[in-house]
């Protein structure tokens, strides 16, 4: 597969995923459900009926009847089985976007048009009539057409995506950023997970269950979502939303980062310490509201944390950790002391989650928590007066791309 055809194929997957998300959000009742790739690409189920939807994205292709011919014959075969009682009765929808050619179907589909353009085909120089082979009469075909909707004017890729974002904004009463990075990101993950399950029963989800799974409090690193945006753009968008400010307010900022012991490099972590201190500190000589950030490192062994501190000390990089002397207990007041030009404190290192929680609770100033996690989030602190942003990253170096 060429690079270009690979890109087109991936866009086709995203187009179908987005249409699936639109479909489930558009269900009228919480108990209505959507099934992925059962009868067709998408099955919509309400208390009274089932609609099988096939969707295709042909942004560079002219519409021709042959493009949907196979889908039409398949749906007719299912219709015959439904009439015989071996399969459930459903409605059928073929929906697609094409570069041109929509005028070829402007007058709709009648029985003769259906037979000529969709049900008659040739294989190995032998002409076949699918309706004849199935033993269906004109009355049967009239019934089939009553159950069939063909839409060859479906939304273009980006327009459909924007419609999905608007639906999510309305559903969750949120801003565009949250709609995309929280809810769309998670919706894409849920649809993808459903699509690869082997059992049809496991590929079905109600609207209520879908919304519950989508509504999480963490920005997850979903490979499909990141692939769609591009990793550099993904990190840049997070930086713009959370870490771009012309004038940094003197808040108490807690940066929680997680390391992977298998890929950990000390110099990489030290560089992150320096970047955090440089960007999120303000300790100039005449600064009345001086401050510096707090840092907690999840997953770092105690001995490695000590080595890191020793290296920072040897390099003249001053920090505090809440322990004032040998064998002292942790003091939230000590670590929360004001960082100034005089005392030279550049960062405040928290040794444990319990130290972190105690410090956050003890401070009365505005607090902001930024938690970067590799897998599941590791710190839960729910307080409506404290901003707690959770961002899943793939590796430690991603954090620099965000902050």
How is the topology of this model organized?
Blueprint: H1 3-25, E1 33-36, E2 42-45, E3 50-62, H2 65-84, E4 91-100, H3 111-119, E5 120-123, E6 126-129, H4 130-133, H5 138-146, E7 148-151, H6 157-172, H7 176-195, E8 204-206, H8 207-214, E9 218-219, H9 223-229, H10 231-242, E10 252-258, H11 266-279, E11 294-298, H12 302-314, E12 319-320, H13 332-335, E13 347-350, H14 353-362, E14 367-373, E15 387-392, H15 396-402
Parallel strand pairs: 3-4, 4-7, 9-15, 10-11, 10-14, 11-13, 12-13, 14-15
Antiparallel strand pairs: 1-2, 1-8, 2-3, 5-6
Strand fraction equals: 15-25%
H/E order of the elements?
HEEEHEHEEHHEHHEHEHHEHEHEHEHEEH
What is the CA-CA span between the terminal residues?
A: 37 Å
Number of helices: 15
Got a strand count? 15
Percent helix, as a range, is 40-55%
Number of domains: 2
* Secondary-structure content class: alpha/beta
Characterise this structure.
- By secondary structure, the protein is an alpha/beta fold.
- It has two domains: 3-216, no CATH class; 223-402.
- It has helices at 3-25, 65-84, 111-119, 130-133, 138-146, 157-172, 176-195, 207-214, 223-229, 231-242, 266-279, 302-314, 332-335, 353-362, 396-402, and strands spanning 33-36, 42-45, 50-62, 91-100, 120-123, 126-129, 148-151, 204-206, 218-219, 252-258, 294-298, 319-320, 347-350, 367-373, 387-392.
- Strands 9-15-14-10-11-13-12 form a seven-stranded parallel β-sheet, with helices on both faces. The chain has a six-stranded mixed β-sheet with strand order 7-4-3-2-1-8, sandwiched between helices.
- Strand 12, helix 13 (332-335) and strand 13 form a beta-alpha-beta unit.
- Helix 7 packs across helix 8 (207-214), helix 10 (231-242) crosses helix 15 and helix 11 (266-279) runs parallel beside helix 15.
- The longest helix is centred in the first third of the chain and has 23 residues, at 3-25.
- The mean pLDDT is 91.
């Amino acid at each position: 597969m060429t690079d270009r055809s690979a890109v087109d194929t991936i866009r086709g997957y995203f187009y179908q995923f987005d249409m699936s998300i639109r479909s489930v959000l558009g269900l009228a009742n919480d108990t209505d459900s959507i099934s992925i790739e059962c009868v067709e690409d998408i099955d919509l189920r309400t208390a009274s009926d089932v609609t099988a939807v096939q969707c295709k994205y042909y942004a560079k292709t002219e519409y021709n009847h042959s493009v949907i011919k196979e889908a039409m014959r398949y749906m007719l075969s299912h219709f015959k089985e439904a009439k015989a009682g071996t399969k459930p009765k459903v409605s059928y929808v073929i929906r697609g976007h094409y570069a041109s050619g929509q005028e070829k179907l402007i007058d709709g589909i009648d029985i003769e048009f259906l037979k000529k353009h969709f049900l008659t085909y040739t294989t190995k120089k032998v002409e076949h009539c699918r309706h004849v082979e199935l033993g269906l009469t004109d009355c049967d075909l009239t019934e089939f057409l009553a159950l069939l909707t063909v839409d060859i004017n479906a939304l273009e890729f980006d327009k459909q995506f924007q419609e999905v974002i608007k639906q999510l904004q309305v559903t969750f009463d949120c801003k565009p950023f949250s709609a995309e990075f929280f809810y769309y990101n998670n919706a894409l993950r849920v649809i993808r997970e459903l699509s690869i399950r082997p059992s049809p029963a496991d590929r079905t989800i109600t609207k209520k269950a879908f919304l519950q799974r989508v509504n999480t409090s963490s920005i997850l690193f979903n490979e499909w979502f990141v692939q769609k945006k591009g990793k550099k753009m993904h990190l840049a968008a997070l930086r713009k939303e959370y870490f771009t400010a012309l004038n940094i307010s003197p808040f108490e900022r807690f940066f929680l980062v997680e390391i992977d012991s298998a890929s950990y490099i000390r110099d990489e972590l030290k560089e992150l310490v320096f970047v955090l201190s440089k960007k999120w500190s303000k300790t100039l000589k005449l600064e009345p509201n001086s401050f510096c950030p707090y840092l907690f490192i999840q997953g770092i062994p105690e001995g490695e944390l000590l080595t890191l501190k020793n290296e920072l000390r040897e390099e003249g990089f001053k920090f505090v950790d809440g322990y004032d002397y040998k064998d002292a207990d942790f003091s939230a007041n000590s670590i929360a002391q004001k960082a100034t030009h005089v005392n030279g404190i550049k960062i405040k290192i928290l040794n444990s989650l319990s130290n972190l929680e105690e410090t956050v609770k003890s401070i009365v100033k505005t607090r902001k928590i930024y938690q970067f996690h590799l897998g599941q989030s590791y710190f839960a602190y729910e307080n409506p007066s404290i901003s707690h942003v959770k961002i899943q990253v793939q590796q430690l170096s991603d954090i620099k791309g965000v902050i």
